[in-house]
Design brief:
Elements lengths: L7 H26 L3 H20 L4 H22 L4 H23 L4 H8 L8 H15 L4 H9 L1 H6 L4 H23 L4 H14 L4 H26 L3 H22 L1
């Protein structure tokens, strides 16, 4: 049962799972509270454009996908701020453009790429040291920015009142967009582009059902994201099934279990 911990690639996968589970659980609460569930999917598909460009240029896809997705996130926030378009509409535009670019980049490559496949569906076998270092750095940045959590929570509940209290809501929108975009990119190796949106939404949604405060919701979301990533990876290894899909199904099971229990109470 514990032989999984003696296998090098599984050690890397488990560490990466814990790190991205923490990040997704932490930033996911802001996505859920602000009603931006589509943002995770949009940024994930934007990341595909960056991954495809990295494959085309024969570079490490992660290093191309991170700045590419950050630019898309900034673009989404800027267009949403400067126009009367809804958030979903703006995300949909950038979603489509990024996917179209990704398809063209993959077509220009004109040969099969395992990197693109791994990022699309997630692969515990392909997790590298880089896939551990980058989310670890992002967690350090997140901890350094933890004092911002209170004002992010404030503006998530009442944006207009936060602006009245002179909180830099627009600046925070850009900062959160950048951090969420990097979280998406570093998570897709474990979960996959196709399923990363669920990874960002289900743990905080489950936590919201049983939380009476935003701080408790954040803590439970982080715990759920981390534990399900660990258990999901372990199950996927022994059943020889895709890791990302296993993690999401486990999270969905927990969500519906909590929903049923909370309704009975």
């Amino acid at each position: 049962m514990f032989e999984i911990f003696s296998i090098e690639f599984m050690q890397r996968a488990l560490i990466a799972g814990v790190l991205v589970g923490f990040l997704s659980g932490y930033y996911g609460v802001f996505i859920v509270q602000r009603g931006l569930g589509f943002l995770g999917s949009g940024l994930a598909h934007a990341a595909f454009g960056g991954v495809a460009l990295g494959v085309l240029l024969n570079q490490e896809p992660l290093w191309i996908a991170v700045p590419f997705t950050i630019l898309v996130a900034i673009g989404i926030t800027w267009v949403k701020d400067k126009t009367n378009l809804g958030g979903d509409t703006t995300i949909g535009i950038f979603f489509s453009v990024s996917m179209a670019l990704g398809v063209i980049f993959i077509f220009l490559k004109r040969q099969y790429s395992s990197d693109a496949f791994n990022y699309l569906f997630g692969s515990i076998l392909s997790v590298t040291i880089t896939d551990i270092i980058v989310p670890a750095i992002l967690i350090i940045i997140t901890l350094l920015l933890f004092p911002f959590w209170k004002r992010w929570a404030y503006s998530s509940f009442d944006r207009e009142l936060a602006q009245t209290d002179r909180i830099p809501v627009i600046l925070d929108d850009y900062l959160l967009s950048v951090l969420i975009s990097v979280t998406v990119v570093v998570s897709i190796k474990v979960v996959g582009i196709v399923l990363i949106a669920a990874f960002l939404v289900i743990p905080p949604a489950a936590a919201r059902l049983i939380s009476r405060s935003f701080s408790k919701m954040t803590l439970l979301s982080i715990i759920t994201g981390t534990v399900t990533a660990l258990i999901g990876l372990w199950i996927s290894y022994y059943l020889d099934v895709p890791s990302g899909a296993t993690i999401i199904l486990l999270q969905a099971f927990i969500f519906f279990f909590i929903m049923i229990i909370s309704k009975r109470k």
